[in-house]
Amino acid sequence: MNPQPLSTAERIEVLLDRLGVGRLHVAGCMSGDWAGLVERSAQRIRSLTIVAPHLNKGTPAGLAAFTSPVMVVAGDRGAPADRARNLAAQFANARLVELPGYESPMWANTVADRTGEVGEALLAFLAEAGHDDPPDTPILPEGEGEIAGLHYRIRGAGPPLLLLPLSLAPSQWKPLEAVLAERYCTITLGGACLGAVSLIEGRAGSGYGDLAAGLIDRTNLRPGETVLEVGCGSGPLARALARRTAGQNPIVAVDINAHLLSEARRLAAAAGLAEAIRYEDADGEALGFSDAGFDVAYCCTVLEEGDADRMIAELVRVVRPGGCIVAMTRCVDVDWWANIDVPGPLKRQIDASGPAAGSGLGAGGCADASLYARLMKHGLELSLMGPQFAIYRPGARLDDVLDRLVAPLAAGEAAQCRTAIERGRADGSLFVAEPFHCAVATKR
């Protein structure tokens, strides 16, 4: 029997034990990264800082029992601000720092955008929370490596400070790393098991990946044709294309996010595909490629985050006449389907909450049926259009999705839902279907 894979918290504990780190300060963003530590290793955490919180595992239970100092930092606008306020209220000993006139969705570059304010608040909080830090803190050699599937980078000396990923923030902690390393031994973590990369990779290994593979099939890619992926993230689609084409097709994968590109290169190298994919830094709204330079272009769950019309215009520009464009977006206009046996009104409430469980919609973004009219406006001929479902069956992705669907429910309804979920697990009927608007188009 294969052993159960280590949880995120277990991986972090293995890494800290191997490095010889005992108690430490922790800073991060996504509940999937820090919640397990709070639950399993509360006595190890001197303080917890959560920047622009993204609750990919929902709001963890039992936060009131965590008594170490907590600071939550977020903008003061929109749904992310409400999420931060609600999260801070769950802790017994938390302060909320709101950045005025700022919104901090999943892709916000908060530390880069508000470096001075975040840095000042963080340093003051760490100094106060660490007033009893022992003077004989361990001295760790600077450098980087990998332990338990986690990539780590160590800088500075002093009390240890664990820096977990900041969701989709392109700069991550870099604007503050040098300042923090003057007073603390910073241990910056990354890898496929953490942050937004874990979501992207987990999604690709589930029904979403199956749906994307079906769209690839519809392009009828031929040997020698050049391929572009816009918004590659950590690179699972590009790696799938590289495996499928076995070196017969030049593949270029681009993203505007330096953090994700770094992870994509590392994951491609680990898979033996470093030479098969060329990763480049490029903005989907202004691709730095010549006209008609590609035969096929893919753009999956990217049009939500920027000016969709500009991105579509760029896709059309860089694809040759007769070439193919594949576009996929989330659906804010189509309910999900959760196969959970609860009364009709509660079932409808759960399904209707699905569109809000995504990562938000940027100014000018597209996550509805307007996708098809936008594509046709640019002269594309659509051979496939309409919502299709990614089916999530038992696994990490389903667990993540269920956490987000149940989180908004009242306590009694949530308990009823969890009971039904366990029944579904037991009899094998449990799944969640997430809709995506999908289009395959030809440039005339």
Description:
By secondary structure, the chain is an alpha/beta fold. It has 15 helices and 16 strands. The chain has an 8-stranded mixed sheet, sandwiched between helices. Strand 10, helix 10 and strand 11 form a beta-alpha-beta unit. Helix 1 crosses helix 2. It is globular. The model has no long low-confidence stretch (mean pLDDT 93).
Shape estimate:
globular
Report the end-to-end length measured between terminal Cα atoms.
54 Å
Strand content: 15-25%
Percent helix: 25-40%
Our count of helices gives: 15
Q: How many beta-strand segments?
A: 16
Q: Which residues sit in consecutive blocks of at least 5 with pLDDT less than 50? A: none
Multimerization state: single chain
Structural class: alpha/beta
Walk across the major sheet and give the strand order.
Answer: 4-3-2-1-7-8-6-5
Question: Would you tell me the overall average pLDDT?
Answer: 93
Please state the CA-atom Rg, rounded to the nearest Å: 22 Å
| Main pleated-sheet profile | 8 strands, mixed
SSE inventory with pairings:
Layout: H1 8-19, E1 24-30, H2 31-40, E2 45-54, E3 70-75, H3 78-90, E4 94-99, H4 110-113, H5 115-129, E5 143-147, E6 150-155, E7 160-163, H6 174-181, E8 185-190, H7 195-204, H8 207-218, E9 227-230, H9 236-245, E10 251-255, H10 258-270, E11 277-281, E12 294-300, H11 308-318, E13 319-330, E14 337-338, H12 344-353, H13 370-377, E15 380-392, H14 396-406, H15 411-427, E16 432-443
Helix pairs in contact: 1-2
